[in-house]
Amino acid sequence: MIRFLTAGESHGKALTTIIEGFPSNVPLTEEYINFHLKRRQMGYGRGHRMKIETDTAEALSGIRFEKTLGSPISLLIKNKDWENWTEIMTSGKKNSEVEKITVPRPGHADLVGVTKYNYDDIRNSIDRSSARETAARVAACSVARSFLEQFNIFVGSYVESIGGIYSKVPYSETLFNNEIDLENFNAWTLSQDADKSEVRVFDKDQEDEIIKKIQLAKKNGDTLGGTFFVVASGVPAGLGSFMHYDRKLNAELSKSIMSINAVKAVEIGSGFFSADVFGSESHDEIIRSGNTLSRKTNRAGGIEGGISTGLPIILRAAMKPIATLMSPIESIDLKTMESIISRRERSDFVAVPACAVIAESMMAWTIAEFLLEKFGGDSLEETKNNYTTYCNSLFGRVENNFNAAIKQ
Ligand code: EPS
Hints:
- This protein is an alpha+beta fold.
- It has one domain: Chorismate synthase, AroC fold (4-Layer Sandwich).
- It contains 13 helices and 17 strands.
- The protein has helices at residues 30-40, 49-52, 110-117, 123-129, 134-149, 172-176, 188-194, 204-219, 249-258, 271-274, 279-282, 352-375, 380-401; strands at residues 3-7, 14-20, 57-61, 63-64, 67-68, 73-78, 154-162, 165-166, 226-233, 263-268, 286-289, 292-295, 303-304, 307-308, 313-319, 330-333, 338-341.
- Strands 8-7-9-15-10 form a 5-stranded antiparallel β-sheet. Strands 1-2-6-3 form a 4-stranded antiparallel β-sheet. A two-stranded antiparallel ribbon has the order 4-5.
- A hairpin with a 4-residue loop joins strand 16 and strand 17.
- Helix 1 packs across helix 5, helix 5 (134-149) crosses helix 12 (352-375) and helix 9 (249-258) runs antiparallel to helix 12.
- The longest helix is centred in the C-terminal third of the chain and has 24 residues, at 352-375.
- The two termini are 42 Å apart.
- The structure holds ligand EPS.
- Ligand EPS binds next to loops.
- Ligand EPS is lined by residues 10, 47, 49, 130-132, 135, 322-324, 346-348, 351.
């Protein structure tokens, strides 16, 4: 029902996105989009490019008087760096002085790109496969975020580890054990806290250790990856389905996070841990909480049978180290087919904090997709009516269908 496309090369004129399918009357401003774009640019260990750019989206269509029109929304993010690349990235004639890149960086999309697209210059691979494209995604997904906020659905994230440095007090336990005030929990507060740290962690000692490790990586011309959590609160029970593989919320969420550059693993709830323990230690006991049904714990990460349970959605992902190394490793020069030390290219040393922000955006998009699939609507008001009717009858339905004799 909703979709977006992005276009743009990292060192081209601009990035653009077209977003289609959102109902009318969703509040949306350029400031709101730019706020999230700015968050994507932050984090200790980013490269020089982030000093050049101040990513801002210009709304070209689909928004009037700070509300969506229901028409396609198009956004433009200009690349300030373009002025330094006009010769190299021109859509016009090639200047014979522009050198071809012939040495692929291990771990990047350079070699697979030239092989698949029959390029004679690795620059063609580099520029579209660059994580710069995620700026357009964050802009596009801001529409989904703003839409979800109308339903009290919030998404937040924090970094769990960088370079193998974890906190001694893992916050994820609080989430899995439901040690939060579920009624009032707002996942955005996780981001608000995380954003106070240069590496988006909650633990000051861990932050210090991580920064030291990033400094070491920089000194050695090396890079680091890490893990992060993305959490959504306020998601009603009943999004997704077990009826078919591509209707499962967990499957689609994994796909959207896996689509982010350098993400190599995604886990829902206590994922890999649950593979090591007894069922009795893994599953969440069902309890009555007031007039609703809930779970004692949330190891399932808010999804059972591909359907949201009404508890926070908890997703964890791993990002591999950035592939561009300032002390490069071995590769092959495609011009000579001889072994050679790979080439340098300006890049980040660490981008895990930014990756978590991008993952928030992608999670928001996927949840918005499922919400709209379930509740439909051409205007925000229509979607809200459908949503409210459903939510009001949600738990009454179980009681009625099973003739529950409720002991007060
Ligand atoms: C990025 C822009 C890029 C890189 C980084 C992310 O800018 P440039 O290539 O001009 O330095 O800093 O891209 C990668 C890490 C990558 O591997 O492609 C951005 O806007 O996020």
